Amino acid sequence: SAFGVRYDGVSKRFWALTNPESVSEVGLFSSFTLRDWAYHAAPIQAQAGRTQAFMWPEFQIDGDDLVAVFRTCYADQDGEPASVNELNYLLFKRIPNFRQLGADKTEARLLAADTGNGRVRRYAFGAAHEWLFDDGLKTIFAEGVYAGQALTAPYGLASTGDRVFVSENAAGGRVLAFSKRGAFLGVLHTFGSGSVPGALATDGLALYVSDAGSGQVWGIDLATGAVGVRVAASGSGYALDVPRGLACDGSGNLYVASNAGDAILTFNAAGELTASFLQDAPEALAWDSETGRLL
């Protein structure tokens, strides 16, 4: 099928309009690489039982909108066209706020912390339903020197909004912020020599960092950068023993994997223990918001 494609400097993506299955529908797609495409919406579809078609798309980006034109087969004063190949109109279509349209969940990207090699890798799950290296020549999301210091033992990963956070699993390690395309945004926090930052989790307002060195969990306010203890090393009814994995459930609760304590602990927004259950040497945690379950 014919298609129109343009690069958008705001979203750092290529955007395309084309016919995904037939000329009776136009799909909006985007890609960072021109290889792995994500489906966003069908801005135009033929009416059921009508001889209608939309071909040869072209478009321009106008601020937050996408303005497109198509050669179109549509009923006119002589009635319904004999076939979809009778292109008798030009159709103009404005797609408002196109960058805010959600992407098909079958297209996804994965960041993997390669701790031993000091880098964060980027993978993609493509339309062929297979994992592959993403981003053309740049399959590495983060590697090298940032703020005058080499990225060391990247470990924890978390993302919220347009930012990705990476922790360094070393004494005095840092938490670094990147854009979703891998542009370095700055050092969010540098810990003291007695701290070993590990897993990360975020509720959108704060970033939580497990610390095997001090045996506690830190909270970093994402608006102000203020740092404080989110969960102390010990408290009423609990004692953290080598905290590792973290997860947030969206209701103000924080789950902490106490690795050497063989338990997973639940804390409310005030840092109070509300539940715990046994688990041999728990490591990574994640919250599945669709099913409301802890992984």
How is this structure best described in words?
This protein has 295 residues and is an all-beta fold. Helices cover 0% and strands 53% of the residues. It has no helices and 29 strands. The strands form 9 sheets. Strands 1-2-3-4 form a 4-stranded antiparallel beta sheet, with no helix packed on it. A hairpin with a 4-residue loop joins strand 28 and strand 29. The model has no long low-confidence stretch (mean pLDDT 88).
- The percentage helix is under 10%
- Write out the strand line-up for the largest beta sheet, numbering strands in chain order: 1-2-3-4
**Shape type:** elongated
User: What is the H/E order?
Assistant: EEEEEEEEEEEEEEEEEEEEEEEEEEEEE
DSSP strand tally: 29
Percent range for β-strand residues: over 45%
- Structural class of the helices, strands and pairings? mainly beta
**Rg over C-alpha atoms, rounded to the nearest angstrom:** 25 Å
What is the strand and helix layout of this fold?
Blueprint: E1 3-8, E2 13-18, E3 25-31, E4 38-45, E5 53-62, E6 65-73, E7 89-95, E8 108-114, E9 119-125, E10 131-133, E11 140-143, E12 145-146, E13 149-150, E14 154-160, E15 163-168, E16 174-179, E17 184-190, E18 197-202, E19 206-211, E20 216-221, E21 227-231, E22 234-235, E23 238-239, E24 243-248, E25 254-258, E26 263-267, E27 273-278, E28 287-288, E29 293-294
Antiparallel strand pairs: 1-2, 2-3, 3-4, 5-6, 6-7, 8-9, 9-10, 9-11, 12-13, 14-15, 15-16, 16-17, 18-19, 19-20, 20-21, 22-23, 24-25, 25-26, 26-27, 28-29
